[in-house]
Amino acid sequence: MEKYTYEQLLDVIAALRGENGCPWDLAQTHESMIPCLRDECEEVIEAIHHKDDENLCEELGDVFLQVLLHAQIAKEEGRFDMSDIIDGLAKKMIRRHPHVFGDAPKAQTEEEGLANWKAIKEKEKEEKKKR
Length: 131
Description:
The chain is an all-alpha fold. The chain has helices at 6-16, 23-27, 34-49, 53-76, 82-95, 98-101, 110-130. Helix 3 (34-49) packs antiparallel against helix 4 (53-76). The longest helix is centred in the middle third of the chain and has 24 residues, at 53-76. The N and C termini lie far apart (51 Å).
């Protein structure tokens, strides 16, 4: 059997919330899904602690499902969609890693990389406050 593609998965999620979709999926809101997101994140952590790759793969899929459902709900509401999430994340990773994607000096240690990340994040928070 061939593997499903990302685009096919997006179609599956849309169908679950579509006209003939699943009543549970259709009833979900961002708020109602908070307990599910918490539970799935805890299950990922448990799989990591147990060094259980098979379970980790499944649980990461469950966390990703939460992201996809939130994105689908937002899309239906005309707020944002998965492409906006992906675009925003890619831009953030590039912005917060100028030592990889820009002309900043290379981070030499894990601590230096984390310090750079935190400094850039703090600067972004300050800029948001000014808006």
